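Late entry, NAP complex.
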Amino acid sequence: MNLNKTAVITGASGGIGSSIAKRMNILGYNLVLNYNSNSESLKALVETFENEEVETRIFQADISKFDEAEALMKDAINNFGTIDVLVNNAGITRDKILTMMSADDFNDVININLSGTFNCIKHVCKKMIKQKSGRIINISSVIGLIGNIGQVNYAASKAGIIGMTKSTAKELARKKITCNAIAPGFIQTKMTDAMTDDAKQEIVKNIPLKRLGNPEDIADLVEFLASEKASYITGQVISVDGGLHM
Ligand code: NAP
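Prediction complete; structure with ligand written out below:
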């Protein structure tokens, strides 16, 4: 199966990004998979890909750097001609309570999560405008909607992504480009592995569906938002959180 479409996924070496990448391969997208430091995970992931009718490229870029984000998009355009789907998934946490949070803790998270998302949208939008088509899917977080102790930096970055999503959706709608945000709840990846089992159990108590999410729960929604079936949906923030935020 080859859809003749290209998807760029940032942070594809991580838990959620890997799952999205695997799904998009099965669906028949040519892929440009971005990582920052963890090339081994990404190479190992690509070796598990089942669909050999499509091409996959691996591209190192620190998306918080404007020029590196540009190089990532150029790689996709030069090799595949189009970018049909951009998934802005790369993100970090630097959790600390406000009194302990340094300016670097704050700025690092904003630079990667929020400016990185801007950098990627900025370097993909001209191409999508020319194509008069495109799907931009931004991975925000439930924390951007409700806030959290110890995550002033992360919550600000993820709330910023929501504002960026809505403004981008309004600007680009007349060119038939959609832009939506996914707000995952607590998903089992390296990011949540840092939490103790007690902390996880405490969180599960507050989740109506009584479990943490899986990366595949997020890939399911990316699949839908990238598909023709989602062509009339833009500017939305869709929670995938077991009902944590409603
Ligand atoms: P993860 O396993 O820690 O993966 C994070 C990914 O981001 C890695 O691929 C990492 O690349 C990449 N990354 C970090 N800094 C980067 C940079 N400067 N440039 C390019 N890539 C960079 O985390 P995850 O749980 O899969 O999270 C994926 C996204 O979902 C994040 O935006 C996160 O905020 C969001 N999210 C996660 C949860 C959750 O519960 N897990 C909940 C809500 C939202 P390298 O490893 O190669 O450096």
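The first strand starts at residue 5 and ends at 9. Will revisit in the morning.
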